[in-house]
Each structure stands twice: as C-alpha cells, then as structure tokens.
Fold this protein.
Amino acid sequence: NAGVTQTPKFQVLKTGQSMTLQCAQDMNHEYMSWYRQDPGMGLRLIHYSVGAGITDQGEVPNGYNVSRSTTEDFPLRLLSAAPSQTSVYFCASSFTVGQAAGYTFGSGTRLTVV
Amino acid sequence: KNEVEQSPQNLTAQEGEFITINCSYSVGISALHWLQQHPGGGIVSLFMLSSGKKKHGRLIATINIQEKHSSLHITASHPRDSAVYICAAPSFGNEKLTFGTGTRLTIIP
C-alpha cells in the first residue's frame, strides 16, 4: 500500500548508543519531515526536507541528524542517545508545501532511552 | 513562532451529540490543518483549509482568518470518533508547522 513506512515501531536504547530511524514514502512527495511527540506537548518539528539533497532544522534539532539522498528516504539519526530523547517519533510527507498540501504520517516509532 | 491553542483539552459526550473543538493561533497563516490521532497512535490528516468551510462526511471544519480561529465540528457523534484531534498552523513559512496539544474526545455509547 502507498504511504509512509517507518521502522522500527519500538526501540530501547542505552544512553550513548546511536541508531537510525528509517522513513520511506512511495508517493513521490517532495516534502518530508520528522516530529517528536511528548506527553502534554504538541508534535514538534525536528528536521525537514523540501527535496533530495536539501534539509533544514526545525524547532528541536539538537542531537539529531538527517540526510535526503533520494526522494523516497529520509532517515533520522540519533548520534548519542540521551534519556531526554525518549519519545514517539513520526515521519510525515506531502507533495509540496503550501495551501494545497496535505500530510501523510507514518505509524510512529516509540523510542525509550535508558 | 505561531502559538496554537486548542480547547477543550478533554471532551466526553454521549453518542449522537454535536461536537465542537476550537483552535486559535497567533500569527496570520495561509492554511490550517486538522489531524486525527487514533487510540493506537496513528495520525491522519483530516482537513487543510485557508478560508470558509470544508465538509467530509460528518466532519466540518471552519476558519475565520480575521479572528485567527478555526473550529472542527462533528455531527451525530459515534464512539468510533473517539480520538485526539489536533490542529496545526504554519510558522516561519509553510515548511514548518506548529501543533496544538490536542483535544481528547471520548464518545460514550
């Protein structure tokens, strides 16, 4: 089925470990973004990309890296996991930004850092 | 940054009731998004609107650009409507969305 695929669904990391959250879409969407969702807070933008080779920081980028080598994939890398990065992470994509763009979200990754 | 506030935070209603969820934002925008987050955690985009009203089934979204206010209405509510409803508005251009904290809706049979 077409959509946004996120892997893994669940992950437990030890403090200091690194890992990559995968996000792939097959809708030829130009815009992709990563959010984290914490209790009592709205979704917050980590990083986003408006096309292959172009990335930019969102509201909470510290401790995370991204790259966009292809239109389809937008992985999120945790460089050295910290307990403060325990959260639910969502990847989203849209055809473009602007008035006509609706978002498609992945199913989320629940990350726990111990 | 666009400040986005939703009310109420929690809403419990009986099946069949008319539901209204409100969203206010601080900075003029080109379009506002309404999303639904299922109890299992998945997020679905419901509406994106820049003026007036949009309708999809029993869901109606309205926006008043001058008042910087939007509402999401659900007619003839049903237990399957139980979810968290989230509004989001662009900040710093259309590439960045600021999300409200959501309204948790519970419909009792």
The first strand of chain B starts at residue 4 and ends at 7. The mean pLDDT of chain B is 92. DSSP finds no helices and eleven strands in chain B. Chain B touches chain A at residues 1, 4, 30-31, 33, 35, 41-45, 48, 50, 86, 88, 93-102 (CB under 8 Å).
